[in-house]
């Protein structure tokens, strides 16, 4: 059974809290897109507000992420410099941080980043250690992951984008069917590593992704724009 993870691109802290409140009783993990306006064209909280007061309170441990006692947070860093931000999100209590391979100037720099992360935060994603996942855009060949083959423990998960235009939600962005074969290829190549898919997932394509081996489905609009969020989540879970 694939895990269903609601995806949120928060406008601000209040928007994040409101959306998490709608799903906190029905899922164990929430996926939050952090957009810096550089790596992608859009900005999301906390980049949408310089020196965001709410985020500062979280970093000072004066406040927690919304419903932190009910859900775990998966942070998708769609930013140009993930190394400069990742510590803050670990401090905020993230269970899993996802970084784009394309954020790094070379495969060598990407591998160096993963090595430093694991050295600093631990070598497995248990309850005591945050997980590190790598994200690939639709146009990035899965062969780039070969840089990690000698040390597969450097990453805890692989996320494949299923839309070409990333950083937006609620607009009609086509689902890239090529991701279905990419899921199968990654699962065959890297056994034991969970594979997520993110972007324009709906009832029509979700089953195909599950059949291909996807372990996690990251779903935004199909959940939050539905008339009955609870029922929609349960239907996705039943696939």
TrEMBL record:
GO biological process, one term: carbohydrate metabolic process
Leader sequence segment: none
A GO MF term: racemase and epimerase activity, acting on carbohydrates and derivatives
Keyword vocabulary terms for this entry: Isomerase, Metal-binding
InterPro entries: Aldolase_TIM, Ribul_P_3_epim-like, RibuloseP-bd_barrel
Keyword Isomerase: yes
Highest taxon, organism lineage: Bacteria
PANTHER family tied to this protein: RIBULOSE-5-PHOSPHATE-3-EPIMERASE
Protein name according to UniProt: Ribulose-phosphate 3-epimerase
Originating species: Candidatus Zambryskibacteria bacterium CG_4_9_14_3_um_filter_40_16
Lineage: Bacteria, Candidatus Zambryskiibacteriota
């Amino acid at each position: 059974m694939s895990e269903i993870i609601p995806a949120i691109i928060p406008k601000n802290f209040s928007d994040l809290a409101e959306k998490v409140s709608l799903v906190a009783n029905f899922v164990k993990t929430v996926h939050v897109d952090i957009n810096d306006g550089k790596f992608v064209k859009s900005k999301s909280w906390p980049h949408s507000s310089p020196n965001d007061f709410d985020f500062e309170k979280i970093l000072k441990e004066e406040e927690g992420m919304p419903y932190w006692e009910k859900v775990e947070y998966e942070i998708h860093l769609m930013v140009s410099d993930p190394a400069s931000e990742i510590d803050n999100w670990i401090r905020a209590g993230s269970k899993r941080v996802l970084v784009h391979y394309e954020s790094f100037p070379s495969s060598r720099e990407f591998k160096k980043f993963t090595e430093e992360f694991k050295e600093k935060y631990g070598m497995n994603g248990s309850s005591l250690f945050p997980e590190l996942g790598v994200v690939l855009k639709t146009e990035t060949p899965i062969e780039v992951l070969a840089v990690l083959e000698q040390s597969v423990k450097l990453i805890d998960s692989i996320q494949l984008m299923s839309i070409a235009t990333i950083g937006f939600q609620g607009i009609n962005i086509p689902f890239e069917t090529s991701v279905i074969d990419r899921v199968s290829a990654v699962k065959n190549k890297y056994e034991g590593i969970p594979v997520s898919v993110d972007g324009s997932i709906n009832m029509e394509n979700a089953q195909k992704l599950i059949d291909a081996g996807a372990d996690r489905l990251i779903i935004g609009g199909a959940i939050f724009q539905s008339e009955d969020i609870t029922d929609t989540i349960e239907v996705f879970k039943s696939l």
